[in-house]
Amino acid sequence: MSQNLFKWKHFESEIILLCVRWYLKYTLSYRNLQEIMSERGVSIAHTTIMRWVDEYAPIMDKKIRKHLKPTNDSWRVDETYIKVKGKWKYLYRAVDSKGSTIDFYLSEKRDKQAAKKFFKKALGSSHNQQPRVITVDKNQAYEVAIPELIYEGTLGCRTRFRQIKYLNNIVEQDHRFIKRKVKQMLGFKNLKTAEKTICGIEAMNMIRKGQVEEIQCALSEIEFLNKIMGAAA
Length: 233
Description:
alpha/beta, Nucleotidyltransferase, domain 5, five-stranded mixed β-sheet, RNaseH_sf, IS_Transposase
């Protein structure tokens, strides 16, 4: 049962989800949240909030995906950089022609295998459909990865592949949300922590874009998240 997600916790589920949601949605540090909660009479260590984000962000992402509106079949794919343990890693991201998030994938490398893993992850999400056209940047790995995926049957045989920079402005602009949030974090300590946190940031970004049918305002966002996480009153 979803209520078991918060079993044995010392704080009420609503407080835990409030801290997790605020951290993933706004440019706040863990210490910022600690101070905000303290002003409201709730004493929480910033490390506790960090553990909550690490635990619940991936769960939130998984549950939100079941409620996402369908994306369209025109994919815009690009990579941005995320610092992990002082080194740059690659965050593959895709949106459709209207800006809705298709998917994301954090990789240590920027090569054919990473590109293939990203596309397979995206196609495994129920809110996505087979792309009619895929627009990418000048990363040469796509020139090999996409034909291989078509040959393997992962991508449809009629999928068009194009490299037109100005058409990818929409995904490059979309990177801003996560770059702004990650900059506040001053980098991640390891890849696993980065993956878990980015899952939650991307999930909240999809909510912000209106990709969840049930959410019409901030209040319904809170009610929705409490419900799917088993924290509804």
